Amino acid sequence: MRAVIQRVNQASVAIDGTQVAAISRGLMVLVGVEQGDTPAAAEWLASKIVQLRIFPDDTGKMNHDIRAIDGRMLVVSQFTLLGDARRGNRPSFVQAARPDEAVPLYETFLQELEARTGQPPERGVFAADMQVSLVNDGPVTILLDSREQMSPSPAS
Questions:
Q1: In angstroms, rounded to a whole number, what is the distance separating the alpha carbons of residues 51 and 87?
Q2: What is the pLDDT of residues 91-105, one digit of tens each?
Q3: Alpha helix locations (H) across 14-131?
Q4: Is residue 18 among the annotated active site residues?
Q5: Strand 18-23 to strand 2-15: parallel, antiparallel, or no bridges (unpaired)?
Q6: Active-site hit among 78, 108, 109, 117
Q7: Closest listed residue to residue 42, CA positions, set 108, 137, 135
Q8: Would you identify the CATH topology of the domain 2-148?
Q9: Catalytic: which of 80, 93, 141, 149?
Q10: Residue 111, exposed/middle/buried by CB under 10 A (0-12, 13-18, 19+)?
Q11: Is the omega angle on the peptide bond into residue 139 within 30 degrees of 0, that is, cis?
């Protein structure tokens, strides 16, 4: 799974001009599910996002996570995060999971976020044509890929 995490002052999602979700201070999370992803990937990604210390403390140092600031999350499924544009000019999306595989993992990811924060994330509508608006704070934008997580160091 891949995610783009943005620290925001506000974010919202609209469909056909109607707002379906909105948050104030918190995280805007765009997430893509890749073929072969597992529930373990969703769990790892949710855990990592919730623990990211990207909010400022009293001295301005990025030292607080989403829970410390009582922030909210807005999560939008975005298969285009799996686009491969290394060849040609039209991205290939063959690595993106089909909906029958992606939807359950997206739902698992949302459940994991809720379990770790104690509140359900706001969300877009899977596979809908959405208009996403946000005010990126900082700007702070982090990219995560569950397939690139670091393995533990060997014991000495």
A1: 35
A2: 999 999 999 999 999
A3: 39-51, 99-117
A4: no
A5: antiparallel
A6: 78
A7: 108
A8: D-tyrosyl-trna(Tyr) Deacylase; Chain: A; (3.50.80)
A9: 80
A10: middle
A11: yes
The tokens describing 97, both together, are: 């999971």
Does 79 qualify as catalytic in the annotation?
Answer: yes
Could you give the 3-state DSSP secondary structure of residue 16?
Answer: coil
Is 80 annotated in the active site? yes
Burial 41-67 (b: 16+ CB within 10 A, else e): bbbbbbeebbebebbbeeeeeeebbbe
Per the residue annotation, which of 55, 79, 108, 117 is the catalytic one?
79
The pLDDT score that the predictor gives to residue 149 is 77
Model confidence, pTM: 0.92
Q: Please give the torsion angle defined by the CA atoms of residues 103, 113, 91 and 129, in that order, rounded to the nearest 10 degrees.
A: 60
pLDDT in tens, 50-70: 999 999 999 999 999 999 999
Alpha helices in the chain (DSSP H): 39-51, 99-117
